[in-house]
Records
---
Amino acid sequence: MPEPQLAIFAVQGVGEVRPGDDLAALLADALGGPDSCGLRDGDVLVVTSKVVAKAEGRLAELRHDDVAAKLELVAAESTRVLRARGDLRITETRHGFVCANAGVDLSNVDDGYAVLLPVDPDRSARRLRADLRRRLGVDVAVVVSDTFGRAWRRGVADVAIGCAGVAAVVDLRGTPDAMGRVLEATEVCVADELASAADLVMGKATGVPAVVVRGADPSWRREGSVADEIIRPPGEDLFR
Amino acid sequence: MPEPQLAIFAVQGVGEVRPGDDLAALLADALGGPDSCGLRDGDVLVVTSKVVAKAEGRLAELRHDDVAAKLELVAAESTRVLRARGDLRITETRHGFVCANAGVDLSNVDDGYAVLLPVDPDRSARRLRADLRRRLGVDVAVVVSDTFGRAWRRGVADVAIGCAGVAAVVDLRGTPDAMGRVLEATEVCVADELASAADLVMGKATGVPAVVVRGADPSWRREGSVADEIIRPPGEDLFR
């Protein structure tokens, strides 16, 4: 059996994350167990926005059955409402993300609270990356993922809302295709593809808030930023 | 070292695919080599739309520098134009996909030709799945992938345009979350996530037209259909 080009490992045993927790310490502990894949230079650690936000204290008080309060919270987290249907709002967040309900999330959180998006998910990723390097002596990349709906396609999929140590978008322009000609315009959003791949392992209810992706292309390693590379400025966007 | 939850293997050595080729035979040969991961029951084979379309003869004559002819071809492949900018058209295809230039593709194809989308990618996936079962005696799933742009986010990502033997969308409603409560609405588009994961291994120019994803959740196994499960009917869509 050959080695796979890409291997994805669940990070088990992180447990519930609470405001003020040291997320790097929790992850390092979980990754240090005998049954763990560990962390190696070049790995990509994909971690859910939810545990990042919980550790950073990005919780708002909210009774889950209080629809009016939820709408108010969504409005406070949004700079613009693109569409509304029932109590669903498709909004633009302060970060520039377009998603349902500004990312305000009531699942896997105690009633009485909602989880918000991290204030600056690229910064969260950079900090976690630096903390893991300090603790474990490894140079890994970090992707902060969240679950977004999409226009035109049913179902949600995980995307990157922050990254560090890995390109968000890889520009293949100037790379020859298999026929030896130069490709016109192929900018691949590898950060979103890493987040989607990770979600295949995370599931939604199994308490796996992070995965290790081993085998990512070394040429993707660089500082990286979702804010700078993925968010499409409104002037360039055909759908805002 | 534990086994990864998910492993992705490139299918090497398929070579150029031509109209009339037996794609299952080409893939079975490539998967039969001593350095190959082979195919096992429960694997998901992700194969690019391009090689499926080439095998099915979905090529149109087109000089790559003939912009007017390209626009004509895109129009012929579309039922509706959503947006236009320069010679870029965001259109709805006959299948109901919303994508750039109706999927008309000039990369990795000889000048003088364009590759179109398969007529019925779910059917293509079903046929390939049945052919592989007949040849190799394995029960695998097949996802036909293509590279689409997205609203609001820069960069392209691979999505599923056809599938067989795997759910396109997994409905987690009714599944308890990690706090033991029932999730409200989480329909995860695992077919798109599988396609995105596969693209991390395929690259764009390395001649890898298929990958094997090993470790997909067995509960996702069923007939599956991108057309029925992913394409959002216009009446339900907030962005058409």
---
Amino acid sequence: MAPHQHRITVRYGETDQMGFAHHANYMLYLEEARTALMAASGMPYGELEARGIGLPVRKADLRYRAPARFEDVLAVGVWIERIGPASITFAYRIDRPADGVHIASATMELASIDLESGALRPLPDDLRASLERTRGTD
Amino acid sequence: MAPHQHRITVRYGETDQMGFAHHANYMLYLEEARTALMAASGMPYGELEARGIGLPVRKADLRYRAPARFEDVLAVGVWIERIGPASITFAYRIDRPADGVHIASATMELASIDLESGALRPLPDDLRASLERTRGTD
Amino acid sequence: MAPHQHRITVRYGETDQMGFAHHANYMLYLEEARTALMAASGMPYGELEARGIGLPVRKADLRYRAPARFEDVLAVGVWIERIGPASITFAYRIDRPADGVHIASATMELASIDLESGALRPLPDDLRASLERTRGTD
Amino acid sequence: MAPHQHRITVRYGETDQMGFAHHANYMLYLEEARTALMAASGMPYGELEARGIGLPVRKADLRYRAPARFEDVLAVGVWIERIGPASITFAYRIDRPADGVHIASATMELASIDLESGALRPLPDDLRASLERTRGTD
């Protein structure tokens, strides 16, 4: 499938004294792209929480390949790698279109939990269907 | 009264490309000091929320006098300036003990709200009493 | 003058357990809007630093009027309130277009410093001219 | 070797609307612990940068096992897993001493670079020696 494309611009407060976008902030970039993907799939994350389901991150693997800097416009591609009974794995690739540099790659596994009890809870069928449609055929 | 003293150390991820602790992070330092003051007064903020009361910030005035840098140990003094019917005003002063430099000053007014409805809600008597004790006689 | 308008969307990681966009993050929203204003004026902040000049925040006054929440799209209006010999004061107003709620207001005074020495340094004439043009006639 | 132990307390601004310490902030906790380990080894990270060497993160793998919450005191254990010619791999384990819950584990690989050119640069011998001593015999 084609990844969902999202643009972010590095904020000054996200840089560190090395002059790089600090590595922790990439998680916010990935999250913003994932949120946009879910909204585009017809299942905004906020709606999911309103139904009592949360998707906390369980596993995050990031590879930083080249530094990003203040005011860099980054293209964050995000797609669904795997849908489990009570989990979703997203994959990401961050590029800087201005010079074509590959900035970072990542995968993140989110667990589906009941917000009340904190226990694992299978993904609701309509969310699964929305995500499967978004996923398309690989 | 003597301010409650709290120490924080500037994290790398809190610096910006100017090499300064980014100004937004001072709000986290002030918050951490305020949280420590409340815990010391016998009324931890978390307990307040458990009772259905939140203290969102309504007003924040900060003066940055000298930059702080990575690994700087900062002394954050915090005291209560005013207790209103449904608000508390905290005052702060940040110094760097290593060289005695005055880093910043601030005041923040927090509203007391009902977490359920979001409406203003008078401070409970026991919290007010705890804070008044903490405040002492000026 | 008409404020420069900038849009931001509240990220999940910017919320706090009260369910509000945490007050410290507003400083990043204001900064992003200010950066966009400077870029639009023909004097991107990054270029200024490349010329050895920094604009650290010296004074920040924020008024939080209504909470913003996850995925809220906020309109951040920013304009120049005053240009001093070695300082610029920006004013801001944040609204939520979806329901017309006024979220926050702020002013921030930035000092113009020499990045090498840290000392105050008068604003360069071309920056001043760019900003004056942006400012227009009130 | 025994991990270097570091304590952090979850800040309010680090929670998200799920009521958990947001996953991005763990990177700041790990960084703070790593910084403390380096300082304890006699080679503070700031000194390294003063010598023109930076250690940006190249690879980060995190496993979130149980949520941490506001005001939780977390014990972050950090140790050196591997020292390469121009890289160091740190391993981490975060526990919550109050109830013995294992919160998270992580490994992070940092590259050693020349801050001027951005190119890989072998770790200086004295840093390597400091770290090897810290590492001890496994």
---
Amino acid sequence: MNTKPFKALFSDQPWNPRLTYSPAVQVGNLIFLSGTTAGDAEGNLIGAGDIVAQARFIFEKFEAVLKLAGGGLSNIIETTDYVLTLDDYNKTAALRRELFGGPPWPASTGVVVSGLIRPGALIEIKAIAALGD
Amino acid sequence: MNTKPFKALFSDQPWNPRLTYSPAVQVGNLIFLSGTTAGDAEGNLIGAGDIVAQARFIFEKFEAVLKLAGGGLSNIIETTDYVLTLDDYNKTAALRRELFGGPPWPASTGVVVSGLIRPGALIEIKAIAALGD
Amino acid sequence: MNTKPFKALFSDQPWNPRLTYSPAVQVGNLIFLSGTTAGDAEGNLIGAGDIVAQARFIFEKFEAVLKLAGGGLSNIIETTDYVLTLDDYNKTAALRRELFGGPPWPASTGVVVSGLIRPGALIEIKAIAALGD
């Protein structure tokens, strides 16, 4: 029995039982999405060397998870983007414009870090989403 | 029509239409402030080489945004501070004491990263605020 | 008089009055835990060179704080883990399994940063918890 005060959200991809985190959790109308890199269900990196392809795949994974709660990318209220170079980060703005479809834009934070959680990853994104009333 | 479940908050400074994020978003009584560096409305860095001046300017920007929601710095419940050196970070404690005005203090996280989103920035702060009932 | 819209949570360890942040704050049913390293009440590092011992001590501090709000580690909905090497980070999975006790797992984000807030720290964790209805 789940006595924890939140619900885990999993997209329909198989989830590795060795992992000790959920792709996302929902508490009330807020959804917290785990820091995510462009790994597919088999653990292979998608978009090697291409930060935009990686970011796109990450948002596809977010969309699949948010869909389970009746939402989508337009429910994202905040993203934190961890990247390895500032130059790379600047390349992702057009993708955000495409995926979020115009204002109101989510809040956003970007920082350059020393390493990401998956070898070959150029970007790792965590996000918070909110469901409407 | 905004069908997204949140509201964007902008201070009265002109906002660059090329940007794909909001300075802050409000959902319910929570306000999520974007990771912010000490850039003014024209994109110029304020407080070059001076982390305390930069942090002060960032909090002035936060205050302007929070004011739009009827709040101020005392509504900040959490900050995440990204800095380039730990020595720099220690210099900002007195500013926090001045601006937050004593307990209860917000929660706070500080980490040293490899780079910030604006050249010349010594600190980047993201924050969450809560409006009272 | 506290006119701020949140409550600070302190465990029963003495809190250094020079600090300008709270270990955790509660607003509504959400609790925001500050980025925490393995320092004891006297400021000494626990678990030098041992990331698992450090992470365990951090979660003990989280548990003490969450207990004040009637909760515990099972209330944690999200963690952000800042580490210095990816190899170190992988060592903490078994601890998470032990402490969170199985699904639903919290959301989780891990990134490799250049430095943490306490000399000798190998991991710094921030977290969000939610109290049940």
---
Amino acid sequence: MKPTVLLTNDDGVSSGGLWAAYAALSEIAEVTVVAPATQQSAVGRSISIFEPIRLHKVIINGFPAYAVDGKPTDAVIIGLYALRLNPDLVVSGINIGENLSFESIMTSGTVGAALEAANQGPRAVAFSLQVNDQGMKFDDPRSDMMHDDSIGDVVKDVCSTIFEKGFPEHTDVLNVNIPAEIKGGYEVTRLAHTLFHTGVEERFDPRGRPYYWIDGPLVEDAEEGTDVHAVRQGRISLTPITLDCTAPAAFEGLRKQFC
Amino acid sequence: MKPTVLLTNDDGVSSGGLWAAYAALSEIAEVTVVAPATQQSAVGRSISIFEPIRLHKVIINGFPAYAVDGKPTDAVIIGLYALRLNPDLVVSGINIGENLSFESIMTSGTVGAALEAANQGPRAVAFSLQVNDQGMKFDDPRSDMMHDDSIGDVVKDVCSTIFEKGFPEHTDVLNVNIPAEIKGGYEVTRLAHTLFHTGVEERFDPRGRPYYWIDGPLVEDAEEGTDVHAVRQGRISLTPITLDCTAPAAFEGLRKQFC
């Protein structure tokens, strides 16, 4: 019997990235798509506790899917508890745009969905594809770059390795980032500190009142061994992520200060 | 000269919890309030990249504040980069409702704001107050429970200790949870796995179509040493949080599997 996969994302159920993952995974697994109905980038691990959630059966590209009126985290919860799926693996992506560094994984809806899954029990993999043109991240339809077989091959290879050898130990979520141009193999990496120099751009509306866009350039240099460095070298970055953000190294000092 | 604090939250700029923190902190620091204009609970570390952000000067309870039309993360970014504040400490809260366990800290806007601050440079403390009635978490105005001086005293004590002795080492964010009824002192804790048994409740609209509410009961038992356990014992939980979710224990196994 084929292993089962719950496939979700943050770009929405019609994203070319999701369907590229579907095409690759359906060769090796029974895949159920449960994804946000609309674009939900940068919502991190938001969860809908003030609004009820609707679930719609849809057909996309000739395949059945569930569209969830909510966040990526909601889609995972609906898949597990309303649809009662019991997947061997949750896959989130392929996101159009890399999800690298501490900063990005916590603001990413793609990684947010994977973290939610892991918190609920199933292990999870997040796939993201580097794009060199930042504007392209949010183009839609964005199927063009998804016709590149080498990208689907990475999804198939990572997941079939997991099905054969088991999910990596000491890991809750495996965060996979695929370079725009693949020049090397896999590199096991740690998270970089940040991917962008965060900042704001002030603009003025036609009435002369200011408003702000969050924006900032990419960081120039990345330390060797980090996810940012690996992807910039053209290697496929595999970062093991833990849900537990406790910093035990701080315990002794904190006790001295407060107890 | 007094130390400087950027004070934010996720319940919105008019929350009684924020102003309880303000009252406590203004005795020991120069406090600038930069907070979401409206309720933003459970948005985690969402960041507004599709919408421009407005900033409004407002007067609340007789004090000046900045209301940001965005998420808690946006409020921090606007405070640091549009208002060019350079605070000694970022404080987020006091949230009405505990933020305990892996699960809650990643879906919490209160902790999300603190994580964003720490990623940008300033160290940050998140304060949350346990409530026994889950519905009460989102009541507004909710100033009643904020007239309890013992809650403000915790904020003042934690922050004055940080100003005197420095921010705890090996920590990016200090996550402080105050029990509804304080029965003991501080306990340095690790994050529990979860606070709720996540699930969904199916209901039917007047037209017979289903919709879902995310909900679930609190977990019954909490391991000793965790944040959930400490707060249930009536102790003030101090959890040191790291931004780096890399799981280095997984490196060797992953390399064997993939490289």
